[in-house]
Amino acid sequence: xxxxxxxxxxxxxxxxxxxxxxxxxxxxxxxxxxxxxxxxxxxxxxxxxxxxxxxxxxxxxxxxxxxxxxxxxxxxxxxxxxxxxxxxxxxxxxxxxxxxxxxxxxxxxxxxx
Amino acid sequence: xxxxxxxxxxxxxxxxxxxxxxxxxxxxxxxxxxxxxxxxxxxxxxxxxxxxxxxxxxxxxxxxxxxxxxxxxxxxxxxxxxxxxxxxxxxxxxxxxxxxxxxxxxxxxxxxxxx
Lengths: 113, 115
Prior knowledge:
Chain A is mostly beta strands. Chain A has no helices and 12 strands. Chain B has strands spanning 4-7, 10-13, 19-25, 31-37, 43-49, 56-57, 68-72, 75-80, 89-96, 105-106, 110-114.
């Protein structure tokens, strides 16, 4: 079945460091790929998405490129801020009669001032 | 994107009781979903709330434990019945906005603690 694997956390970085959170997926066909973010005490927010191979999703300085050849969708940011501290979820969706999202296990990111 | 509210935001309940969670959306949507997020875990889909018909449950979730109502295109409720400490989780509703397949937007969640 479909699945998403992302790097385990927690990840701790200093402010202005470069961030990569790895995500790979297993799915038949051509899923859409997402990164969701969950700030402390809040629900999930859609951070960015890509719906086909080689698409790059971007938002708030974060980027991820849909790589079909490596079945990956790694999240990157060039310079993190303390306000980026949150849990990040990689996810995939294949449209069907009942759209479902398959989530990865989540990666907790902490940024030190 | 849709604006989604949930009530209550949190509750502490005794075992054996039930809690009903409400989800309200600011626009009509076809697809609404309920998820569970156990402490420190990812999200697991409980069911799809269908307007005008019975909800569609995922493997491991049953209607007797998690009855769902969907009376119209902007509102749904999830009841967690016969509570046990293992039901302590965050429960989230989500919607797929009409015309935006593949995307889901989430409510703020309801944090349930069972004592």
